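Contributing new complexes? Match this layout with zinc ion.
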Amino acid sequence: MNVTWADPNVVADKAKQWTEGQLACRFNKFHAWPPLKHGLTVVTQGPGWWEVRQWCTRRCGVARKAIFNMSGYKVRDWRPDYSSDAAKQYRMLDEDGKSLGRIGTDGQAALFLVSMTGVTVTQMPEET
Ligand SMILES: [Zn+2]
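Output block (do not edit by hand):
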């Protein structure tokens, strides 16, 4: 499989548009899914199944959904849903919807530097 890594400058440009929550999801490489009893979880019921749909609690815009049968078994695995406007902004896509590449080591470094803007830093005392 060929992986295209995003240009760190492109990652930085994207990151400057992201919310703090979106930066956190990118930085952690993981979303913060809510509990089932939560306003950001919506369960719909059909004949013999439940569809569980959840939005990330950092409000990055990304959702996921899976289907469980009435015995509690997951019968369709979690799939991401990027259909919200926020999720579209979150994705590494250009205006035409073409991939700008994945965030690799260099992209993560650029992302960290953008995320550090406004962070309170404690200076270590100089050793004498
Ligand atoms: Zn998220």
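Reviewers usually confirm one structural detail per submission. For this one: The two ends are 53 Å apart (CA to CA).
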